[in-house]
């Protein structure tokens, strides 16, 4: 293949970014060649053509998109997980001899999107890095380039990494090889997240400094301002890391480095508005691991992964994009500090109690723009004059809000009112500078008001005077030539001219010079007109250049205040969330929970926030729940299929989580001793929607709970042990329940169809049997949806099957088999047990003792019961060795 200079340029650029699709600028198009062309034409449905077609040389596959429409194409590729390297012409082809210089100016990737129009306004867009070293810990860093947020933390295991990723929901994650391997082993799929592996050197802090010192920045003229690559700024980003108590600050630093390095790689610099990396511990928040988050459908549904139907979708009443993002963050990071929770709750309470104020606040916030992302655009040098007007309007909301909040009594609202900065000077400046409705382009002039800048005023005056002069000139020439239809006009192509219709050509004076001939008119110029034209055009050229420069200066002035602006943005966001919680509470009758340090979890007339809004054919039945650290710590909930077991246990978890977010809850009253973690697991066969219905996954997750839950945790188990044979599953469920009760002592709600588990309450002090009441009516059952004390007395599977329309003969046989099973004549698959008869038997009342796990399936003998009681009565500390021996001999004798 013959390599032309242009092709050489292409190949060099491609070599520097081998993983990216290269958009190679050629005039008004971005062209793609070779493999990129083939891939992109398929993904985007473009026509695949070829370069060198028919000229005898090797054909090169080629596809192109017009440069003005490239945004849409780029974002579609990003959506599919590609990265796109934008290779621009760095010189004006008209002024260049030979081939123009080209280079990659930035790489667009899913996690680093500057074009905020293509982003979901109410979700963050994080790029993250995860580093695992020789020691145990994992370091995590993540930043959102659209807002400048930057966070770092450390966690212990691969599952913790996944939980953390699931909480802040990055679009893209850089991992070192060790971390990649560990995450692979954990086998959890994170949909819509793109992982990229890099070698250890990539995360090296010193190497990054070296890179910065060498300066990978392009020629200054083509890189946006708003990026830095200097050591001082870099050190600033790491400033808070050293003093924070991390177990292994090394991996955390490396993770933060990975994020910065990715910016250098893709943006050829680090965004100047990037905030200091903020360290936190995951345990400073209520821990909700990834499986729990999925099962509780906090931000998306299990089935289909949609937002509609999630908790987020029913509680989000925010009116601003930044409020929406903050609410999502509060949902993903509920608090554990009672005082902090109270501060939020009382602010919400005050706005619940003051409808006029709430309306006022929400109404005012409704008109503001996304200040955080506006700041991102200002700082990165992509904001236009309309963005500055947007900033002005947004800051204009601050004064009214402060006035409205003036009389507030709760601490947090007062604080917000005080800290909100109206940026009076900045507003005055922008108001004085920018016209009411500026154009989107910042390079064509028309941005600034008269009276803002003397030089600009002079130029504008010249243009104005020019207009007057032209009118006068037209008047004079009409008089001189006696042609009343004579016109002095201008257009873009020909400039200024005098137009005379064909009928009047005879009256044209000699000093007119012909410029252009039309069908029924001639156009002329004169030396006088030409001179004026130069003046006016010169002025307008100067004006465009001047205004562009002035705008960049103004943008920088605003950019210098970014930190303060972002702080105000976050206060506005918080106010929005608090007011939204109040609105939610009023609209759906939520109440203020009491969150304290007690051991109590008591809910009166609690409802499921999502189910109560989605059921249509019946009324939602509220339920009371009471758990504590002693006698009510493990509840076994039985009841037929479809009774409402899953709903009631989930609603308890959701109510606790909402309370710790600082949100009111769907209940008549709630008292919640603050929780450290919430776990929710769904048995494998109930969990098909997650696409991983293996028993292995169910057990891995259960193991995770048993080793991580504490006595301050809430554990919600739904049909655990279902993914295997009955006896197997039952045994595991049994042992898990015992372990949770005896060792973990977490508050636990266990919904199960294994009635055998209800026997646990005979021996374990903290176990309680509950069931969801149903009423039998002939052979049908009616769901009452009420959680009541005591176990469900039989398995209603057959009735439910009947409701579902199973044929009568099948139902009759099912009843028969059930009866036999319960009499112990068949094994769990309904097959006859050898040595026992097969004569059909009338349906018997279910007797749990017959499938007891104790003593080989029978009841305990009297002697056994006495032996156990004797052992229970022993105080081992007060027993001498001789007493112990005697007691042992006595017990053995009795049991013999
Ligand atoms: P189970 O887990 O016992 O099989 P679910 O909790 O899945 O039952 O509930 C089945 C359906 O019953 C739910 O989808 C909902 O429509 C309805 N339901 C559940 N609880 C209630 C309730 N408290 N009030 C009204 N309807 C309910
Ligand atoms: Mg269920």
- Widest β-sheet, arrangement of strands: 15-25-26-27-23-28-29
Report the mean per-residue pLDDT as an integer.
Answer: 87
The biggest beta sheet is recorded as: 7 strands, mixed
Spans of at least 5 consecutive residues whose pLDDT stays below 50 are: 218-224, 835-858
Radius of gyration: 37 Å
User: Which cofactor or ligand species appear?
Assistant: adenosine-5'-diphosphate, magnesium ion
Number of helices: 30
Distance between the termini: 95 Å
Number of strands: 29
Strand pairing plus helix content: what structural class?
alpha/beta
Q: Characterize the overall form.
A: elongated
Q: Beta fraction of the residues?
A: 15-25%
Helix content: 40-55%
Describe the fold and architecture.
Residues about 220-225 and about 835-860 have low confidence and may be disordered. With about 900 residues, this protein is of the alpha/beta class. A hairpin with a 3-residue loop joins strand 18 (about 515) and strand 19 (about 520-525). Helix content is about 45%, strand content about 15%. Adenosine-5'-diphosphate binds near residues 611, 615, 642, 645 and 785. Magnesium ion binds near residues 645, 646 and 718.
Spell out the key features of this protein.
6-stranded mixed sheet, 896 residues, alpha/beta, binds magnesium ion, 30 helices, 29 strands, 7-stranded mixed sheet, binds adenosine-5'-diphosphate
Write the topology of this structure.
Blueprint: H1 5-16, E1 21-26, E2 29-33, H2 34-44, E3 49-51, E4 60-66, H3 70-79, E5 84-89, E6 102-108, E7 126-132, E8 138-144, E9 149-155, H4 158-168, E10 172-176, H5 177-186, E11 194-198, H6 205-214, E12 227-228, H7 231-237, H8 249-267, E13 270-271, E14 278-279, E15 287-288, H9 290-295, H10 311-315, H11 321-332, H12 338-353, H13 355-366, H14 371-379, H15 385-395, H16 398-405, H17 411-419, H18 424-433, H19 454-481, E16 487-491, E17 495-501, E18 513-517, E19 521-525, H20 527-559, H21 562-588, E20 594-596, E21 601-606, H22 611-614, E22 623-627, E23 634-638, H23 645-661, E24 669-673, E25 677-682, H24 695-708, E26 714-718, H25 726-744, E27 747-751, H26 760-763, E28 767-777, E29 780-789, H27 797-803, H28 808-822, H29 862-872, H30 881-895
Parallel strand pairs: 1-5, 7-10, 9-14, 10-11, 15-25, 20-24, 23-27, 23-28, 25-26, 26-27
Antiparallel strand pairs: 1-2, 2-4, 3-4, 5-6, 7-8, 8-9, 12-13, 16-17, 17-19, 18-19, 21-22, 21-24, 28-29
Helix pairs in contact: 4-5, 11-21, 12-21, 13-16, 13-21, 14-15, 14-21, 15-18, 16-17, 19-20
The chain binds adenosine-5'-diphosphate and magnesium ion (MG).
């Amino acid at each position: 293949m013959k390599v032309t200079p242009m092709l050489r340029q292409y190949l060099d650029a491609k070599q520097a970014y081998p993983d990216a699709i290269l958009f190679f600028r050629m005039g008004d198009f971005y062209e793609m060649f070779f493999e990129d062309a083939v891939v992109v034409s398929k993904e985007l449905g473009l026509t695949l053509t070829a370069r060198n077609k028919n000229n005898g040389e090797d054909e090169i596959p080629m596809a192109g998109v017009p440069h003005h429409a490239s945004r849409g194409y780029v974002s579609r590729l990003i959506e599919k997980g590609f990265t796109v390297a934008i290779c621009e012409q760095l010189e004006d082809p008209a002024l260049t001899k030979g081939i123009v210089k080209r280079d990659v100016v930035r790489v667009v990737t899913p996690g680093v999107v500057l074009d905020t129009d293509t982003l979901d306004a109410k979700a963050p867009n994080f790029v993250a890095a995860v580093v695992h070293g020789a020691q145990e810990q994992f370091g995590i860093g993540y930043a959102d380039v659209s807002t400048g947020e930057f966070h770092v933390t450390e966690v212990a295991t691969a599952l913790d990494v996944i939980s953390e990723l699931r909480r802040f929901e990055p679009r893209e994650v850089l991992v070192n090889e060790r971390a990649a391997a560990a995450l692979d082993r954990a086998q959890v799929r994170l949909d819509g997240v793109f992982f990229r592996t890099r070698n250890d050197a990539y995360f090296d802090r010193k190497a990054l400094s070296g890179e910065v010192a060498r300066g990978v920045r392009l020629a200054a003229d083509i890189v946006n301002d708003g990026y830095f690559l200097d050591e001082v700024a870099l050190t600033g980003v790491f400033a808070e890391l050293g003093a924070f108590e991390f177990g292994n600050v090394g991996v955390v630093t490396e993770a933060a480095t990975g994020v910065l390095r990715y910016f250098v790689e893709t943006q050829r610099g680090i965004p100047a508005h990037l905030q200091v990396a903020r360290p936190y511990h995951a345990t400073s928040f209520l821990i909700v691991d990834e499986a729990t988050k999925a099962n509780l459908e906090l931000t998306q549904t299990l089935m289909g992964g949609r937002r509609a139907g999630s908790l987020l979708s029913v509680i989000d009443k925010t009116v601003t994009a930044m409020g929406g993002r903050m609410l999502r963050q509060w949902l993903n990071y509920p608090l554990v500090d009672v005082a902090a929770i109270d501060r939020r709750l009382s602010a919400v309470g005050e706005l619940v109690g003051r409808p006029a104020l709430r309306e006022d606040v929400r109404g005012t916030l409704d008109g503001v723009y996304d200040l955080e992302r506006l700041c991102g655009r200002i700082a990165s040098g992509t904001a236009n004059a309309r963005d500055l007007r947007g900033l002005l309007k947004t800051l204009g909301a601050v004064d009214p809000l402060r006035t409205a909040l003036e009389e507030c009594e709760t601490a947090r609202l007062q604080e917000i009112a005080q800290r909100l900065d109206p940026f009076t000077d900045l507003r005055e400046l922008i108001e004085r500078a920018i016209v009411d409705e500026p154009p989107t382009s910042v390079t064509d002039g028309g941005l600034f008001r008269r009276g803002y800048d003397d030089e600009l005023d002079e130029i504008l005056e010249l243009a104005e005077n020019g207009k007057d002069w032209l009118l006068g000139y037209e008047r004079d020439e009409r008089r001189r030539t006696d042609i009343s239809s004579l016109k002095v006009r201008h257009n873009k192509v020909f400039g200024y001219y005098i137009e005379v219709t064909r009928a009047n050509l005879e009256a044209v004076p000699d000093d007119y010079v012909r410029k252009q001939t039309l069908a029924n008119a001639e156009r002329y110029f004169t030396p006088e007109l030409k001179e004026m034209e130069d003046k006016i055009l010169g002025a307008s050229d100067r004006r465009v250049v001047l205004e562009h420069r002035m705008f960049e200066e103004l943008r920088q002035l605003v950019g210098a205040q970014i930190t303060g602006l972002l702080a105000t943005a976050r206060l506005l966001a918080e106010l929005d969330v608090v007011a939204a919680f109040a609105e939610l509470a009023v609209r759906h009758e939520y109440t203020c929970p009491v969150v304290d340090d007690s051991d109590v979890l008591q809910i009166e007339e609690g409802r499921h926030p999502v189910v109560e809004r989605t059921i249509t054919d019946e009324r939602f039945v509220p339920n009371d729940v009471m758990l504590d650290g002693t006698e009510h710590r493990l509840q076994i909930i039985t009841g037929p299929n479809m009774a409402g077991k899953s709903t009631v246990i989930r609603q308890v978890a959701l109510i606790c989580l909402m309370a710790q977010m600082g949100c009111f809850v769907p209940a008549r009253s709630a008292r919640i001793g603050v929780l450290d973690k919430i776990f929710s697991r769904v048995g494998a066969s109930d969990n098909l929607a997650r696409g991983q219905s293996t028993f292995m996954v169910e057990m891995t997750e259960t193991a995770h709970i048993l080793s991580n839950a504490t006595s301050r945790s809430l554990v919600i188990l739904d049909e655990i042990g279902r993914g295997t044979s009955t006896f197997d599953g039952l045994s595991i469920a049994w042992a898990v329940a015992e372990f949770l009760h005896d060792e973990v002592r977490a508050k636990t709600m266990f919904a199960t169809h294994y009635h055998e588990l209800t026997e646990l309450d005979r021996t374990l002090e903290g176990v309680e049997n509950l069931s969801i009441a149903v009423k039998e009516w002939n052979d049908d059952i009616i769901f009452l949806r009420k959680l009541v004390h005591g176990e469900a007395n039989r398995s209603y599977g057959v009735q439910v099957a009947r409701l579902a329309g199973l044929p009568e003969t099948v139902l009759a046989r099912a009843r028969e088999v059930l009866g036999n099973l319960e009499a112990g004549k068949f094994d769990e698959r309904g097959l006859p047990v050898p040595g026992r008869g097969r004569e059909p038997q009338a349906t018997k009342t279910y007797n749990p003792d017959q499938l007891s796990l104790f003593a080989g399936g029978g009841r305990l003998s009297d002697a056994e019961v006495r032996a156990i009681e004797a052992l229970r009565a022993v105080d081992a500390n007060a027993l001498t060795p001789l007493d112990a021996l005697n007691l042992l001999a006595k017990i053995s004798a009795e049991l013999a």
